[in-house]
Amino acid sequence: MAKGDDALARKKNKSNRKKMNRKNDSAAVSSRIAAIIAAKKRRQTGKRSMCQGMCFSLPTPEDPFNEKLGKVGIVKKKKKKSRDALSVNKSSLKKPSQHSDEKTRKIDVPPESVMLCLSDIESSFHDLDKPLFTSTWGLEFWKSFHSGKDVVDTSGTSSTLEQIAWIVSTATEALSTRDNEDNQLNNSPFLLYLVPSQSKASQVRSVCKALKRRGVHAVSLHQGAELDHQISGLKSLEPEFIVSTPERLLEIVAFKGVDISGVSLLVIDELGSLCASGYLDAVQSIKQAISSEHRSIVFNDSFSASYIPAVQSLLGRSINRLSLSDSVASQASCILQTVNVCASEEEKLQKFSEVLDSTSSRKINIVAKEESFRKLTALLKLKDLSVIIDNSDSKVIPAITKRGGQFACLIDIEQFDSAEMKAFETVLLPDFVPSFETYVEILTSIARDSVRGVLHSFVTDKEVDVSCLAGSLANVLEDCGQIVPDCWRNMSASMSD
């Protein structure tokens, strides 16, 4: 006879009361009984281990040997999926962030080893004006070194203690990295520092001495010491850094006292003084003797235009400019400026045509007044040059470059963008500049990544008389070590009197 609803409800309530009583009593029972109760609850929910499943689970037709153990397999799969999902999340979140952080650190912040080297140098010199690690020049140099480009310092002075410290510290860090990655024995020094005098060599070596505790040995080679003594010292010590004058280094190389073919970093200090002393050929011979892939740093202590070819012969096509000064002469360093003063417009056009014929650059940038575009375009087409107006058509330039040959870009002098001119190496000014500031802006914005910048200006006597800019432009040319037209020099002198 079937039970009624009241009987079923009483039975269910009784079962619930028993469960509640067991739950309340489990806190008062012993730990052993509590463990048994907990195990029973895990069995009922399917959360049991392998041994518990073997003890308390019965075989089924689908699982006669208790291999799946009911819900255990399902739980395992869920856990496995959760681990996979977690690993995916880690790879998608943590790894890119670590890579981006590492990349940012490499670009923006020097590693700890460089800072430790700078700290050691600071401890050796107690009269420093400011901490070395705060140097803006040093940070920019470190970035330039790791970009793989050559560096030219356009301050117009010899290297300072601050600059030397950053160079040797960066070289120490790069040396340790190379030794860790390359197990091949390299007998050549890592850093070769060329100086014009014994006093400068002593200054550089005094900075390098602070890095001896880092395992870096530096020697100074110059006249005044016995040649045999220096050769024997090089063979016994095998220094990582060599500071030397060019003539003494060539003597030692000739006697096979040192191998410089594997030098990784070449520093040429006071290039103007080296050229004035007649050591340019020796410096170039040393540069050619280095057969390995290396980077060069040139400190040009003179703004004279006569030394620009020397700088060009020692550096690559693409360089980074660094300077401790923001003067016009510093920013315009290694840019050849020529001013063609003509008697008439016809003579000016003739001079402009001659400069076009002598220019070897593929891309010629002409900054002129817009009303002169038609006349200039006709002249350029007569010389079989492709013409681009305002350098604005991005599709035309690659097509012309692919065809080969020279082409010219006409740019409005009233609307030029100085940020876009940093890659311009050859710039012509067929019309006189409207102001002195315009000339300076053009001069200091071209050839930012090169030492082969050329700026040609064309002006008539009448334009100079009307504008009264001859004195200001003459001063800029003189400060930059360029040739000043005689008429401008005389005019500037008369105005100063």
Automatic annotation (TrEMBL):
<keyword id="KW-0347">Helicase</keyword>
<dbReference type="InterPro" id="IPR027417">
    <property type="entry name" value="P-loop_NTPase"/>
</dbReference>
<feature type="domain" description="DEAD/DEAH-box helicase">
    <location>
        <begin position="180"/>
        <end position="299"/>
    </location>
</feature>
<keyword id="KW-0067">ATP-binding</keyword>
<dbReference type="GO" id="GO:0003676">
    <property type="term" value="F:nucleic acid binding"/>
</dbReference>
<protein>
    <recommendedName>
        <fullName>DEAD/DEAH-box helicase domain-containing protein</fullName>
    </recommendedName>
</protein>
<dbReference type="GO" id="GO:0005524">
    <property type="term" value="F:ATP binding"/>
</dbReference>
<feature type="compositionally biased region" description="Basic residues">
    <location>
        <begin position="10"/>
        <end position="21"/>
    </location>
</feature>
<keyword id="KW-0378">Hydrolase</keyword>
<keyword id="KW-0547">Nucleotide-binding</keyword>
<feature type="region of interest" description="Disordered">
    <location>
        <begin position="1"/>
        <end position="30"/>
    </location>
</feature>
<dbReference type="GO" id="GO:0016787">
    <property type="term" value="F:hydrolase activity"/>
</dbReference>
<feature type="region of interest" description="Disordered">
    <location>
        <begin position="74"/>
        <end position="106"/>
    </location>
</feature>
<dbReference type="GO" id="GO:0004386">
    <property type="term" value="F:helicase activity"/>
</dbReference>
<dbReference type="InterPro" id="IPR011545">
    <property type="entry name" value="DEAD/DEAH_box_helicase_dom"/>
</dbReference>
<dbReference type="Pfam" id="PF00270">
    <property type="entry name" value="DEAD"/>
</dbReference>
